[in-house]
Amino acid sequence: MTISKAGLLSGLFGGILSGVVSFVAINSFSKSSQISSLGDAISVANTYIVFTTIIFVATTIFLAVAGLWFTYQFASSKELQTTHLMKELEERLVENKDDMGIKFIDAALKNADVSRHLQEKIENKIRQLLDEKKQNNSKENALVDSLQNSLGNNH
Description:
By secondary structure, this protein is mainly α. Helix content is 85%, strand content 0%. It has helices at 5-29, 38-95, 100-109, 112-136, 141-154. The two termini are 62 Å apart.
């Protein structure tokens, strides 16, 4: 939502003009604006202090509520952005757009924990395939045994 400069300036001008006219009208026609004694001046000053304090408190409460609302909106927006970015990352990994899958794996392998986990998964899969192969082909059992032993010694 955009605000045009003409609308902003006319609204600002209208507000200032109406404030000046109201001030002049109240001071011209009001008899209470003429202070007759010092006691009245002190009561007016005290009233001014009280109303000013009320205005400051109301402004503070408004700003606090607005701050909480903005915080909530930003938190909700962050969750939506994170969800959107994860979906987009998944899509790009599936499509391998711009070699994203390869770059992602390369970046992940820079982490020692990820490398160790991947090595364990690959070794387990190789053991599973070798066991299946061992069961299916009895002639190649000696070769498979030697491969498993060499794999087991490296781990």
